[in-house]
Structure formats: structure tokens, C-alpha cells
């Protein structure tokens, strides 16, 4: 019996996919850090039963029309705004993602980014690298305290709650805004539900963990930055398109807010010529929220399990509803 075919849009460690090689015919794009060209992807999906894709891969009606055998698309991420879910449903394709397994790792990164931005860690490292450290001074690279400050979390899902748990360890006052109230988080973490406007006006640290939707598109805009404290620090580990980057650059340049730490951008990748990269009070990192070796391996295994489950008839573990 002919094996069902899986196409993977990046080069992955053979050891991770080896357990599935006896069950399926697996093909991979040859490069790890470069996306598969669109024309090659369209050609490969013609014969694929399962597609293992990344956030940068656009899974739309055009692609699904090319793939009459396709039964499942497995996205290596929690987010899935790269997938046209209506088109997938129309073509009878199950879409899956990787929730839960990356929650704690992404929260680690989010809080690390908050700390690095507040305490000017990147600037301080560069200060030594460029041989500027000649003497000690009382306010040399003085940043902002984190402990006992107010953190405002926009988007209180799994990752938002994990960040709140970390904030609790720093004796922070926790505000949150979400589409729905979270009574358990309010009880266990003493988190306070507030409106978006109240949160951005009162928080010392504003952390964005919201999914990208039409409602959250550029929710952090000029008006939002105007309402923040001048000492506020903005952290984004959600989606770049939730932020008006021009407005953020202006807010940072004119000291309307103190600093920003960003793991995601409206158009990725960015280069060192991006306006945010010209600012000392912006810490920019290349979308590495879940990038620990352990977690990425778990995510890949979950993607493969989702595909295998659909193809062998037992069902996906984490289908997108």
C-alpha cells in the first residue's frame, strides 16, 4: 500500500521526524531559516496528504485548490492568522496548531524581555562592547524597578496567566484586560480586571499577549501611547500587527513612553535599518518567544502527531476550532 505523503516547509532535524518515517513518505524544504518559495510550495502540496507549515507560510484558497489530497495543515505555532480557516473548511482540510506546550517558555521570554528592557541590559552590554565603561557613576545606565510596580496584561489567555504568575513573584500589582473575565486568575493571582483604557493609563508595564484579529489590529496606536504614563514600558510578544509601529517609534523618540521590548513586528523579518533599531530605548529580538530547544522539539512532535492522527483516522490532538 502506498504511503501517505507529508510535506514540511522547513528543514528539520531528521531525528525528530524519524519515528514517523516508517508510516509516511516525508518530504522537506531543504533550508531551515528560509521559507519555501511559493511556487515550490504550490507544486509540493499537489501530492501531499498532510502539510506541516510555519507562520510565514500563507495557507489560502489558492494553495488549497492545488491540493486535492490534502487532509490536514499543521501549524508550528499557537497563532494561525496565516491560515484561511474558511477556505480550509470549504476544502475539508483540518487545521491544527500547538497550544499549551509553549506557554511557559513564551512567558519566560516575555518576562525576560520585560526585565531586559526595564534594566537596560542590551544597552549595558553594548556599553562595554564599545569600550565606553571608564568609571562608575551613581546613575550609570539606571533603569526602572520591576518589583512592586503595576503590570497590565492585555490578553489573559494561557500565556497571559503565566506572565501574571511570574509578576506575582515580583510583588507586582496585576491588571488585565481580556474579552472575558477570568475569575480563577482574579482569585489565585489577585489580578484585577479593568478596561483597556484604564489599563494603559495606570500600568507601569503594558504587556501585549492578544491574538491578531480585526478587533486587535493596531490596538496599540497613537491614541493608546498618548494615554500611557511617560514612564511606561511597552512589551509585545503577541503579533506585530497589533501595533502601529510608526506611532510606537514616535512615542519612543519623543519620550511619550519610556521604552519598548518587542519580539514581533508588523513585517518580518526586520533589518538593522528598521526605525525601531535606531532607538536605544527599544529592545528588538527576532520572534523567539517559544525558542527553547525543549519546547520547539515538543512543538514539532505535536505537529507531527496532529498530522498522523488525521491521516490514520484517530484525529488531531489540537485541531483549531
From TrEMBL:
InterPro entries per the UniProt record, alphabetical: D-isomer_2-hydroxyacid_DH (IPR050223), D-isomer_2_OHA_DH_cat_dom (IPR006139), D-isomer_DH_CS1 (IPR029752), D-isomer_DH_NAD-bd (IPR006140), NAD(P)-bd_dom_sf (IPR036291)
SUPFAM superfamilies noted in UniProt: Formate/glycerate dehydrogenase catalytic domain-like, NAD(P)-binding Rossmann-fold domains
Occurrences of domain D-isomer specific 2-hydroxyacid dehydrogenase catalytic (ranges): 7-319
GO cellular component entries: cytosol
Organism domain of life: Bacteria
Entry keyword set: Oxidoreductase
Domain spans labelled D-isomer specific 2-hydroxyacid dehydrogenase NAD-binding: 111-289
GO MF: glyoxylate reductase (NADPH) activity; hydroxypyruvate reductase [NAD(P)H] activity; NAD binding
Family statement drawn from the similarity comment of this UniProt entry: Belongs to the D-isomer specific 2-hydroxyacid dehydrogenase family.
Protein name from the UniProt record: D-glycerate dehydrogenase
